[in-house]
Every structure is written in structure tokens, then in C-alpha cells.
What does this fold into?
Amino acid sequence: GAVVSQHPSWVICKSGTSVKIECRSLDFQATTMFWYRQFPKQSLMLMATSNEGSKATYEQGVEKDKFLINHASLTLSTLTVTSAHPEDSSFYICSAKKLVANYGYTFGSGTRLTVV
Amino acid sequence: AQSVTQLGSHVSVSEGALVLLRCNYSSSVPPYLFWYVQYPNQGLQLLLKYTTGATLVKGINGFEAEFKKSETSFHLTKPSAHMSDAAEYFCAVSDLYNQGGKLIFGQGTELSVKP
It folds into this structure.
């Protein structure tokens, strides 16, 4: 199977601090990873697409300086929320796409971020 | 551009009844189509996907969906609902020819199952 581990599952931080969320593909290599944000009772909104070794591609309206994405290896991508504010509180989910495709996407279990 | 529309933000059925969740898509190229389920505070689990070939796709937990190009639809069905099926369901589309293609999600449908 294809397993994606996302850590932490929940985090509470103070306004102005930064938080890093990790997304690891445990048993496959992921050429591409996607980061989504989900508000309560709403759908997933794509924030950015990251490819190993290159800069992330951000969706329109997503602040690249606030949401820093690093994809340093084929098994790890990180999302850092910088200078977090209460409006950044949300559920963040990563997704990884396999290098050798049966065109599968595997999702992490999500991270609940609360900024106080 | 691709898009997905899920008709009905909330569907309620009785246990044992037919489940029908509707999904229509818009795509200028042949689409890949997906159905995912999400339980509270969890990630998404793939139920089934259509890429090419047979238009009736069978997935996990007794779900199936049929790709109808003429209707641009990919509705999800299950003959008999279980209480454990209560969750949020998302339909998604991706670009067949773009191997790095991102998933575009519908708004989601919350399924409730009454005893």
C-alpha cells in the first residue's frame, strides 16, 4: 500500500510564532506533493503544489511568504506557517503522488492548527 | 479549467436504503475522476477512481460509480447504506494528460444514515 504520514496531527501555537507541518511518504517515492487547507464544513482548497528539488507552485491568493513549502526529498515535504495569526487556524492536509503512477494520490491524516 | 459540482450538501438515508451521491464535472480534456470519503478530523480515503476503460467502477465498502461522458457525471452509489457510511464525501477531477495534475474537489456531500 501507499502510506503518507502527516505530523503533528494537532498543534496549538501563539500568535506570531511559526509552525512546521511534515508530510512523509513512508513506502513510496512522491514526485509531487500537494498541500490543502480545509475550513469547517467546507471542501479542500489547494494551496500549493511542490515537486522535489524545485520551488513550490502556489495557487492564486495564497501568500508564499506566509506558507513556506519545502520538498527536499522524494519522501518529505514540509509546510511552515510563519508568523501565525488566529485566521490561519484551520485543518491542513497533504497529499502525495506516486513516482510510478497508477495515478494514485495518497492523503495524510491532516493537521489541526489552532492559533491563540 | 476543470471543476466539479456535487448536488446536495447533505444527504440523509435510512440504514439499508440506496445511497446516491451526485457529481458532475467540467473538463476540456478527458478527466480522471475520484471519490473520497472523509471522517471527522481525518484525511481523505480513496473510495474509487476512473481513469480509462470500463465506465462502471467498483470501489471499497460496496461503493461504485459510473462515468457518463454524455452527462458529464460520475455519481456514487451503494445499494444498502450502513451506519458506518456516515461521513463527508468528495468528488474530484484531475487532468488526464497532466501527470502532475492537481485534484480539484467538489464542495462535498455529508451523508447521514438513520437507524
DSSP finds no helices and eleven strands in chain A. Residues 69 and 79 of chain A are 5 Å apart (CA to CA). The two ends of chain A are 38 Å apart (CA to CA).
